[in-house]
Amino acid sequence: MFKMDCMKFFLCIVITVLSSRWVDAHSATDSVLTVRDVVIEGNLTTKDFVIIREMKLKPGEMITADALDHDQRRIYSLQLFNKVELEVKPEGAEAVVLVRVDERWYLFPFPVFGVRYRDFKKLYYGAGLLHSNFRGRNEKLFFEFALGYDRWVTLFYQNPKLTDDDDIFLGIQARYSEIQSLSVETDVYDQTNLKLGVTHGKRFGLYQSLLGWVNYDLWKISEPSIGRTVSPDGRDAFLSLGASYALDTRDLREYTTQGASLVVFGSKLGLGESPVNFFRYGFDARAFTRMDNNISLGGRMFTNLAGGGAIPKYQRAYFGYNERIRGYFRTALEGEHIVGGNAELRIPLLEPRYYTLPFEFIPQFSTLRYGLYAGVFADAGTVWFRGQRVFDRKWYAGYGAGLHFLLPYSIVLRTEYALNNAGRGEFIVDFGASF
Length: 435
Description:
The chain is mainly beta. Helix content is about 10%, strand content about 55%.
């Protein structure tokens, strides 16, 4: 079992990083200039308000190096541009802030091909279509279908700002899927799920948002059995309501090196129309602090808890699928509750930079951003069922190091080696930042 002194040391690192980032520090005044106007160039498709919405620097604000860096990173985090540059043009005691952007390609027909839950025996394939900047308003239109180990069809629309004069969010999704069970307690069986959902909310200022959602779910199990569904006939159909609050000051969401985020959520599944009657709640807290030489130390703590009536297996919590513990990367752990944490040191070997192709090409693919980081990490976590004590459960932990490749179009490729607390090692190749 993971020794308590090691667990306390790990939690101390994570809590220290998290607590150091919740207050957004004021920028040092390194300029006497204030913003007279903000001018945007290069946005042939994207509306001005999409960019200005992410900026601290607005007319009347003091210009600082920290604010310029903040705005450059926040605009790039929209994932709409290959390159973002800010320039200050003084005009007496004031200045014009010039924002130059190099737009990406926004409409992508794409093949769907991969492995489910990072297991190469679970192959899926298909096709999809994405418009990542519909109407130039950062709206997302998404269609995808897949065949193979799991099969699904998904339609999704997201609008982060319904009109120019509000900060109201709207999301609509429809998904039909035929998927294999995740449970590690029984043999694999087939599940069919239909999900329809609407999300509505509001953003407050630069960093805070409040969302609410209503979903309809239909689950059908090929081989009805106790615990697989709440209903004994193997068919659960129910409504759910949920809400979340988010605070997000991260610099780059694709690969964070500074800032913090906190998401607190709760949802009620089953509103009296079905035998389904339980709820889920939890939080996800992440923070990064940048040290000398742009080395960044990050920490994450999260949990997802359940209460109320019976929890069907399709609503249990898992490590080994979407959440992972490096060192137990391919080990599936199952419970009703989950808790975990990560600590990671990100060391720049090649600071992010741009390369412009020396020959004529499609403009949206001519400017490429790339970089290379070394990562040193530690992960820990466990799952448990109601009636069990979390610290009586076995805690799983791993640590290691690797290389993180920052590639164009916000792609992050990680190659890592991890050792677990049982002394076994494993190589890991994965996409996306670890947290």
